[in-house]
Amino acid sequence: MKSFLLLNGPNLNLLGKRETDIYGEQTLVQIEKDLIEIAKKNKVGLKTFQSNAEHELVDRIQAGKEEKVSCILFNPGAFTHTSVALRDAILGVDIPLIEIHISNIFNREAFREKSYFSDIAIGIISGFGEQGYKAALELAIERF
């Protein structure tokens, strides 16, 4: 069975409570529940993990190699613009990556326009709210 890993970075545990005008009202738990249902209907595995700690995300990425994860779906949050360590972890495991952002990072503050992941991702979904997560999973299922 194909297996996918959904990772969420810092502050995404606050979805539904934080800046709802930008990030929407749906919680991360609700998003994960919806994605798990999509995965079940498509007979694929989906593991989810969120952390505010960079090293925990690095460890989880590295574990994905041993678990034979087919693709990582990753919303790095603020680490998008700062984390060489997470970039190196992705490169180190050689697992395809789909980068996800709820907001359009290219029409926000200038510092958000730079992503340490976009050039190593097979694709980026940015600016479509919570629907971006569903699109990423559906594309991963279709491709892998």
Description of the molecule:
With 144 residues, the chain is α/β, with parallel strands linked by helices. The protein has 5 helices and 5 strands; from the N terminus they run βααβαβαββα. The chain has helices at residues 20-23, 28-41, 54-66, 84-93, 131-143; strands spanning 3-8, 45-50, 71-75, 97-101, 123-126. It has a 5-stranded parallel β-sheet, sandwiched between helices. Helix 2 (28-41) runs parallel beside helix 5 and helix 3 packs parallel to helix 4. The chain is globular and about 40 Å long. The N and C termini lie close together (11 Å). The mean pLDDT is 95.
Q: What is the overall shape?
A: globular
Record field, number of beta strands: 5
Number of helical segments?
5
Rg measurement, Å = 14 Å
User: What is the first-to-last residue Cα distance?
Assistant: 11 Å
What are the segments in which pLDDT stays under 50 over at least 5 consecutive residues?
Answer: none
Q: Describe the strand arrangement of the main beta sheet, using strand numbers.
A: 2-1-3-4-5
Please state the structural category: alpha/beta
What string, H for helix and E for strand, traces the elements in order? EHHEHEHEEH
How is the main sheet built? 5 strands, parallel
* Secondary structure: helix percent: 25-40%
Mean pLDDT: 95
Beta-strand share of residues: 15-25%
Provide key terms for this protein.
globular, single chain, 5 strands, five-stranded parallel sheet, 144 residues, alpha/beta, 18% strand
